Amino acid sequence: MSMIELSPAERRDLRARAHALHPVVTIADNGLAAGVIAELKRSLQAHELIKVRVQGVEREQREALLAELCETLDAAPVQHIGNILIVWRPREEEAPTPKAAPAPQNPATAKSAAAFAAAARRAALAKATAEQKRSEARRERFQKAPAQRSRTTRTTARGR
């Protein structure tokens, strides 16, 4: 792997973008362990531009660590200020995952506007039919026994 070279203008733009970032990885006594490298790769893939905090290492060792880090990750060194290293690498294009074929829909259960409207019409028709049957049943009840109805009405009207 080789280290990416940046022009001064690109480096300046990246430094400006990195100003508001917080360190995502801290490198301590174990140095560039396999877990640290894996986390740096994930962070670079997700963010492209990251800050790395280095603890317990002198300036010359930090510069060597930055060079080794960029060489290992195929990244570009952007800036080294104190214990903070800023590294940039463009995102790697991910291979498109094959999409599963959509499951065939049953035309009877398809949720289209026409199907929805037809279902609404059926529901309204069923409601109207039920209401009509209820009113016919009431009408038949009142026509069967007019004598009983009037007698009940009279006793209720008198209050006795």
Describe the fold and architecture.
- There is one protein chain.
- The chain has 160 residues and is an alpha+beta fold.
- It has 2 domains: 8-88, YhbY-like (Translation Initiation Factor IF3, 2-Layer Sandwich), CATH 3.30.110; 107-158, no CATH class.
- Helix content is 53%, strand content 14%.
- It is built from 5 helices and 4 strands.
- The chain has helices at residues 8-18, 34-47, 59-73, 113-144, 146-158, and strands at 23-27, 49-54, 76-81, 84-88.
- Strands 1-2-4-3 form a 4-stranded mixed β-sheet, sandwiched between helices.
- The chain is rod-shaped, with a radius of gyration of 39 Å.
- The N and C termini lie far apart (106 Å).
- The model has no long low-confidence stretch (mean pLDDT 82).
Mind telling me which CATH architecture of the largest domain this is?
2-Layer Sandwich
Q: Strand-and-helix sequence, N→C?
A: HEHEHEEHH
What profile does the largest beta sheet have?
Answer: 4 strands, mixed
End-to-end gap: 106 Å
The whole-angstrom Rg is 39 Å
Kindly report the name of the CATH homologous superfamily of the largest domain: YhbY-like
CATH topology of the largest domain: Translation Initiation Factor IF3
Tally of structural domains: 2
The CATH class assignment of the largest domain is Alpha Beta
Main-sheet strand order equals 1-2-4-3
- In percent terms, what proportion of residues is strand? 5-15%
Count every beta strand, where a strand is a DSSP E run of 2 or more residues. Answer: 4
SS summary, helix count:
5
Low-confidence stretches: none
Helix % is: 40-55%
Arithmetic mean of pLDDT = 82
